[in-house]
Amino acid sequence: MTKGKIGGITLGIALALGLICTIICVERIPVGYEGVVYSMNGGVQEQTLTQGWHVVSPTKKVKEFTIAEEQLNLTKDNKESFTVATSDNAGIEISFQMSYRFISDRIVNTYQRFRGMDGDDIVNSRVCTVLKSKVSEVTAKYSMMEIYSSNRVEINKELTSYLSKEFLNTYGMEITGASIIDVHPDEQLQQTINDRVTALQKKQQAEAEQETIKVEAETKKIQAQAEADAMIIKAKAEAENYRIKSEAITDNLLKKWELDARLQHGWVTIQGGTPIVNAEN
User: Fold this and answer.
1) Residue 79: inside a domain
2) Domain check: are 171 and 200 in the same one?
3) Which of 53, 60, 48, 56 is nearest to 25 (CA)?
4) Is CB count within 10 Å lower at the N or C end of the chain?
5) Spans of the chain below 50 pLDDT
6) pLDDT tens across 119-143, in order?
């Protein structure tokens, strides 16, 4: 074998080894993720890896954490729904959804706290374990009916606020939204809910009827008062009109009327209680 062939083979081997080494050493961080780097001799690096391709020594390990918003769905469809407590001790099965992300400035501390676990491991083995009890701490303040229907918006708002505080320091996570997306009562509980809904509807109907009666009675009262006021005003007007006329009839006016009558009918006298008209020539 010639030296040229030997050199070519050696070069080929070197290139192959270099390619293999490059493949082994290149680490790709997906969009929306950051990587925490750990080495056996240097520990955890403070500087994380952002999205893109990076050359990393084979002696180092990289664990990924999502810094973009992700959703955790614990639903009946994926058989992960769970039962929460209520203030009336009913207990009700719910489907739950939570939007979250790991905070970039905290992922190194989170990695150290959980001894090398990546973001998905922390969510699946730690967050999901405590999440159900944390949700129950909020729902225990509300009745079954409030969770089932009327107060869902308020409950979801409180869940988001509460879980944000709980998970920020412990897991370095920001909770952007947490909500009960569905309720799954069993047959007995559903019947109880139906009975309560029916009772509530009857109560609301009775209250509406009472309000209608109250409004009608108030309307009649107002109408009667208006009629009475109108009669008083009319009576006062008639009395005032009579007063004005009475004051207008003076002695001079009476004399004038007498004079006008004499001019028209002649002299008027009274004889034996009978008016006698004496015509004037």
Assistant:
1) yes
2) no
3) 56
4) C
5) 11, 14-22, 270-275, 281
6) 999 999 999 999 999 999 999 999 8
Provide the residue range defining the domain that includes 269. Answer: 250-281
Residue 196 backbone class (left: φ over 0; alpha: ψ -120 to 50; beta: rest):
alpha
Structure tokens at 11: 């070069």
Are 198 and 257 in the same domain? no
Q: What is the dihedral of CA 127, 133, 139, 140, to 10 degrees?
A: -160
Q: Which residues contact 36 (CB under 8 A, 6 or more apart)?
A: 44, 45, 48, 49, 62, 63, 64, 65, 107, 108, 111, 118
Q: Convert the pLDDT of each residue in 40-64 to its tens digit.
A: 787 888 889 898 888 787 788 899 9
H or E stretch including 118? none
Strands 43-44 and 33-39: antiparallel
In the chain, how many domains are there?
A: 3
Share of the chain above pLDDT 70, in %: 77
